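Known limitations

Files may contain more than one protein. Parsers should not assume a single record per file. Below, a two-record file is shown to illustrate correct handling: read the sequence, read the token line, then continue until end of file.
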Amino acid sequence: MKYLLLITFIYLLFPCQQSFSQETFSSFGNGKVPQTLEELWKDYAPRKEPLNTEILKEWEEDGVVMKVLRYRIGIFKGQKAMMAAIYGYPKGATNLPGLVQIHGGGQYADYQAVLTNAKRGYATISIAWAGRINAPGYVVNHEIVKLFWYGATHDLAYKVTTDWGALDGYHAPSKYPENSFVEIPTASWTLDSKESPRNNSWFLCTVGARRALTFLEKQPEVNPEKLGVYGHSMGGKLTVLTTGSDTRVKASAPSCGGVSDRYNNNLLFTATLGDDLYLKNINCPIIFLNPSNDFHGRINDLKQALTEIQSKNWRITCSAHHNHQDNAECEVATQLWFDQYLKGTFTFPETPQSSLELKTKNGVPTFLVTPDASRKILSVDVYYTQQGQMDGKADNRENTINRFWFNAQTTKKGKSWIAQVPVFSIDKPLWVYANVVYSLDQPITGAGYYYRIYSADKFNLSSTMTMAGPEQLKAAGVNATMKPSLTIETFKGDWGKEWFTYKPEDWARKTHKLYDDKWKAPENAKLAFEVLSAKPNKLVVGIDAYASEVLLKGSKEWQRVVLSKKDFQNAKGESLPGWNGIMELRLGMQETLNEKIDSENKKLELGAKWIGEKPEFRNLKWID
């Protein structure tokens, strides 16, 4: 505590306005600003400057040395910029592989990632590029970040955190409201006085991440030849930018980012900061964590990314139906990837081989999957959709998030699995891929995307996605054999593979079935199903931004539920206008709906804590 007070006192005596003579980047003057990735980074030396490391807090937990600290990012426009971070390693260990963990938009540098990694034999630095920190006794939320901006040391909540000095690399919120990661601003708070990619926050944060590699290199417990980078969402893009600009990275694991930022209207941005440029520079082993419905790292762009990277050592894991979150068997792939390439304690199976056969006797396509059998295979699942596109352009966001993936039943045939892939239309494209789930020798515990602790005893490995356009389907004689259906779900067999959840500990489930043409509702239909609940409960049925609360009698008998459009209301009290265009169906016990009314957030809370055993369902259908 005394040390923290001393740092604060020094900070007040020598505020961020102090001048430093040695700038990290030289001025362009009347020269030409960088026009390519190579020009952007050619003069940058991430090892050149001292780190000026400050320890803000230090403690030990479960045999792990933990620190909240700051290191120097650089000198920009005469002011020093410092990155706050959480660093930790197993006490007394040496020759450790080092990891840089990069949080996403709105997230924090978090001690859980550092702590769980240390227990597995890694030194990890979790960087707070947006200023937010979550550590025991040292929490910095976005409000405290603002206190730091304005030097509100009189406030008891004030804490020292990331300081971008004369610039603005913050996010959610940015220090200057007009700052945007998707644009190249020119202002008093940007590095260059003319339009330059060095003014963009992606560039600044990548500089900060590359300096984190320098920090790891200099730690006595770290092996500087064994460095990895991983991050989620915006952290996924920063992982790709860092990996593609710094050869010190020996293994990389971006999740939900780093493949789709290639459509910017600003030509200078796409020429210097587009994902594709950095992917083409990646030579080290890389694994992409890319849920099938992710809005930020789109699965169709992942297919292109795999052709762009230079590395031959890559894998992908794509959970079905998920948007911007994942399940444990996909998240654990990050840990296993670093175990293989930084520790040498694990060997990944090869990517499953797959092929789509369009020409068949009955006109129904088949998909053949041959997985690597070097580890015990628990399941092989084939997923397909006709809600994608083939033009190579950015997909519609809502379609991306709500796209429905059919689960095709697989049959083992020798060393392969085969599935029939019936289609509803030959006028729409067909996308198909497979997930292979393998067992682990022992469970692995880690901190997931949003730092929740998970334990996985299996892991998922995906095949590449095969795409066929309407012209290919027609040329091959494919028949549209799938017919419309009023029955949405029987709740028998493997029905859960076409539903999803982000909380596997709960029974609540979601599906995008209603978004698919197969289950399009008749105009005057009602939604009906049967439910079995041993105790009296409240069941919440949700459709998009609307929901209905159903009172269930405690009984051993099945209770029939019939709901009309008017039974579904949003937070404003408005009824669902119609079934046309609906996307997501939810069955659960509690839900909070939100709507903006005159800039204020209106909430509607439905349901209650579930009592007794989980419910059973059957015969979900449309009735006219």
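...continuing to the second record:
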Amino acid sequence: MKKLLNNNLIKNYFILLVFMTVLEILFRVISNIPVFNIAFLRIFIGLNFIALITSFILSWMNKKYSKFFVVLISLVYSAYAFFQMGFNNFIGVYASVNSSSQLGAVTDYVREFLLSFLPKFYLIFIPFILLILYYVFLDKFTELKLNKKFVLKRHIKYEPGIRTISTILVLVALGLVYRGTLVNSAFQDDLQTTSNEDLFKYPSIPSLAINQFGVITFGFLDVKSLYVEMPDAYIFDATDDNISFDVDRKFDDTLWHDVIENETDETLNMISNYLINSTITDYNEYTGLFEGKNLIMIMMESVNEIFINPDLYPNFYKLYSEGLAFTNNYSPRNSCATGNNEFSAMTGLYSIQNNCTANIYRRNEYYTSIFNLFNNAGYKTSSMHDYTEAYYYRSIIHANMGSGAYYGVGDLGIPYYNEYRNWASDEDFMDVAMDITLEDTTEPFMLWLTTVSSHQPYNVSSVEGDKYLSITEDTDYSMDLRRYMSKLKTLDNALGILLERLESSGILDDTVIVLFGDHYPYGLKDDVINQVLDYNLDDYERERTPLVIYNSEIEAQKIDKYTSYVNLTPTIANLFNLDYDPRLYMGSDVLSDEYLNIVAFADGSWKNDKVYYNAATSEITYYVEDSYTIDEIRAINERITNKMQISSLIIQNDYYTYLDNALKEQEVEKETYASVDTQSSVQGG
């Protein structure tokens, strides 16, 4: 009997429960997540379940092993919470097993990753330290009191059968209560667009799942998601999404309606019905502004508004100050910021929030992509990047996007470095890119460039990081910021090469240059960035990046609409007056009258000049006195959720390959019937 008590199911249960509860509270406090709300009641019930089932398993071991595993489990939970805070701070999202390919961004930069941890993150180990102190100084004392109370006084018989039955009964009761918190409307935030029940089945939005279930439970749910299918997307009433306007841009949807009528797959038809009824943005004053001109799109590595500096970066500033400059542009990070954001810019779709969409779905084809729109207009298309495929399968991705030719760093023949801290020079990159592109300009061209020189790390010496340190030698900037700014100088010089080569070739006036950042330099801490930028970086302001559309023949203009890379393809398609269907993009033409002036972030948060909505916490921050009603906030949430859900379904089902083939089949079938009817008429005549 005493041996059974020494297994101490109740004792381990309370130790684990107290430890995990304090850990969750600390995690939320450190991460600025509300603690004492109704979600925490659910979290506490879940922790009871985890603590009880764990202590029940440990109760079958002797005291020594039981204590060892309590310590080990507590260390694992602490380390996991610590890692999640660091990953979110470094990458911008919480880690998920579904985005494991992005772990390379951590393993390749272990030093930078660890240095990015804020001092307050280490507070998460306080519960573990207290647990160790308890076992060292208090465990024997409490154990003697426990044995004296329950063995010497009451002689309670705690047989294995009773232990098992009572544990199962309590676990069932806890499970039922927990289940009630998932379905009861009192536990569902009024503005939350993904139900807690669906989120529990599949934690598709990690930040929201952690807020609703806690970091420990999220870890279990995340692993479980490897073995369950993602729930069917729930599409809200799309009436407000699909606004009908009296527009001049018209489409004959006869074949598309035939595709829908003949299709039996409910998911494919749900996508089709959503898209075919979506808003058509009309022609506007910008339509065809650049019709027939060449296009060079440049996705700039790790660029934020530090780059807007006329003294240090005159080439970029020329483009920014003389072109269409979007003053409220953002490049939201997600599970694979560079690859996924490049994907979104090329397709006008949102990437799937918790995975490396660009890599996982690299075999998908998009007849709607920016490359194919220009291919259809008779342009020569190509794309280039001055690094290897260590992170993203661009030679496959770009080809399936419709790029006529893809050139990696090996194809370009420029020097690059295998060690991660050194990258190729964008100056070398631009020279060779222009050699290839300008060799034949008899037909219009569309070129996509993805740069690399301004990539982290910034806290170690590197070729590009040290090359132009002189430009900041008279400042008191930290060395990591100075190295970053040195790398930006390489990029700015590359832009100077671009402008000079276009001008000397006589095609500068006939070429449009679009520049945007893939993400802000997340290798720099906020306080370091604030040595240059003087605005508050909270509320996703750290994700603010430049967007410029430049042509030497247009008048400079500042555009203050809120936007992101997801709107690039439809905006450019309208500027070039390409043959495109606005309904096939989750982004929209920013310059259209129908544009909803909002930027959406990866977890469903959004903002504009009036309000910031935090989807993880359902908190609303107003910037002006005029406010939205709750119904208006909910309508915007649902609209954004619909677009993200449909976007995910399009990607997961390779919908555009399906639609392209189905429309062609309907066209062939229509032509066949027409031919048969013609022959019948002739024979009958």
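Parsers that stop after the first record will miss the second one. For reference, the second record is described as follows. Residues 254-666 form a domain with the Alkaline Phosphatase, subunit A fold (CATH 3.40.720.10).
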